[in-house]
Amino acid sequence: MIRIAKTSIFLGILLISIFVIFTPGAMVKNASGDLVVDVKAKGSVFKETTPAETVTFEFELENLGDEMTKVTCKVLSNVPEGWEASFPGNGEILLDAAGTGGEKHTISLAIKPSYGIGYHDEIKTFQVSFTPTNIHDSSLKGNEVILYVTVKSKGFAPAGIEIFLVIATFIVILVVVIIIRKIIRKKRNK
């Protein structure tokens, strides 16, 4: 009977450990164990847009540790030519210690697709990093959390100023042709 109880307790602890390890979200700790941050994407990590629109991805960060923590957010992957991807400001957030009411914060990543004349049908994936650091000792860093977001840009991008330059050039050529024709008619009528 005692043997069954010990086995049951061991299995219970093992199951709880597995549950904690594989819980959704990304929890990170530093070597001393006092830096714990949970990062979750709010909403979908895949968004569709047109070349003229900027999409926004939101991430919720929560400090589960007992120290104020700075989290540095940045886009790791090379941003494709013509695309823009950025966090507001310098991408750093201060999270109060757990239980203080200021331990949660939402940060947005804005991505703007390339905008060139013509039809676009592009899918790009961006690697996003969240690195927690102890604000009192910058050498204490938690594990970097990596998440991925994907943007599909599909649609026709009308011209910007280029169309006006083409129209202006056409008008200038048309005016020059009309003037030349009038000059030629005057010479013939003389």
List keywords for this structure.
Immunoglobulin-like; alpha+beta; 2 helices; 190 residues; rod-shaped
Write the layout of secondary structure elements.
Layout: H1 2-21, E1 26-28, E2 37-42, E3 46-49, E4 55-63, E5 69-75, E6 84-86, E7 92-95, E8 104-112, E9 118-134, E10 145-157, H2 161-189
Parallel strand pairs: 3-10
Antiparallel strand pairs: 1-2, 2-4, 4-8, 5-7, 5-9, 6-8, 9-10
Describe the structure.
It is a single chain. With 190 residues, the protein is α+β, with helices and mostly antiparallel strands. The protein has a single domain, classed as Immunoglobulin-like, CATH 2.60.40.10. 26% of the residues lie in helices and 39% in strands. The protein has two helices and ten strands; from the N terminus they run H-E-E-E-E-E-E-E-E-E-E-H.
pLDDT average, as an integer? 80
**Fraction in helix:** 25-40%
**Uncertain regions spanning at least 5 consecutive residues:** 4-32
Task: Count every beta strand, where a strand is a DSSP E run of 2 or more residues.
Answer: 10
Q: What class, by secondary structure content?
A: alpha+beta
Globular, elongated, flat, extended or rod-shaped: what is the shape? Answer: rod-shaped
Report strand %. Answer: 35-45%
Largest sheet: 5 strands, antiparallel
